[in-house]
């Protein structure tokens, strides 16, 4: 019995010694860090507040981490798969419809009318694919990712742990929004790349006949296709800011995603009601299909500039609202 008690006392003393050593080591590191900071502050020409802030490389690492997290999710991969499938289905449908020498789609210049040009030049499948996915599929995918940005972290209980790092709420919010914007570009490029591959496989390629009736080289057409993809991605920045703001209002990722997508559908319906023409120029999807003006010679910039100005307004308003809400929010999860 005495030997057991002695062994227990020895183990207790060893554990206490280990704990004490750990505490001393941590305290030493903290004091050392404090002394280093104080010494840096005391040195001439090295202000202390800036020295304590995370550097630009750290902020870039935070953005990269958020982007990798978004892209690796199965939900995100499924959304990208659906977006890639839309041009494939359009190309196959047009090929089947025109196999007997018929024509596909209506004639004209913008929107779904691009389908009528696909049989002459496979590059037009890029424009048709973007026109088909922009009203519904692309913004819904962005709404899902943006709505889950903050609310999803709160729902899974990881938001507080993200804020433990020296990120700060503003930096974390900016990293979240930057990752959503990167997904906007990625989703748009997935649609364009899928459409270009299917168009080159099923249809001939060559000089591009613009909406103005003039012809441009295939290389020039590729450049314009890339510019159109960029314009479509910029057109989704307003939806991204709106979804991020909604994500800061709730702790449920599903609720935030549903609210964002529901609001998107509602605004789309309002934009189609003629009696509400007075508010149409202020609805974020109103100028989305203006990207067709990039296929004119010369390019018509009026609608394009209005679209960019409108998206910038939505980003400023709802981005500021998201920042005000998130920085003042009581984080409990």
Protein described:
The protein is mainly alpha-helical and 333 residues long. Helix content is 70%, strand content 1%. It contains 12 helices and 2 strands. Strands 1-2 form a two-stranded antiparallel sheet. Strand 1 (208-209) and strand 2 (215-216) form a beta hairpin. Helix 4 (74-97) runs antiparallel to helix 6 and helix 6 (137-156) runs parallel beside helix 10 (237-247). Mean pLDDT is 79; it is low at 1-52 and 107-111.
- What is the CA–CA distance across the termini? 49 Å
> Main beta sheet, described?
2 strands, antiparallel
Low-pLDDT ranges: 1-52, 107-111
Strand order of the largest sheet: 1-2
What is the typical, i.e. mean, pLDDT? 79
Instruction: Give the number of DSSP strands.
Output: 2
Instruction: From the alpha carbons, calculate the radius of gyration and give it in angstroms.
Output: 27 Å
Binned strand content: under 5%
Which sequence of SSEs, written as H and E, runs from N to C? HHHHHHHHEEHHHH
Give the oligomer, counting copies of the same chain as homo and different chains as hetero: single chain
Q: Structural class of the helix and strand makeup?
A: mainly alpha
Q: What form results from the Cα inertia axes?
A: globular
What percent of residues adopt helix (DSSP H or I)? 55-70%
Number of helices: 12
Keywords:
333 residues; mainly alpha; two-stranded antiparallel ribbon; 2 strands; globular; disordered N terminus
What is the topological layout?
Blueprint: H1 2-42, H2 48-52, H3 56-72, H4 74-97, H5 124-133, H6 137-156, H7 159-164, H8 168-202, E1 208-209, E2 215-216, H9 218-235, H10 237-247, H11 253-270, H12 302-328
Antiparallel strand pairs: 1-2
Helix pairs in contact: 3-8, 4-5, 4-6, 4-8, 5-8, 6-8, 6-10, 6-11, 8-9, 8-10, 10-11, 10-12
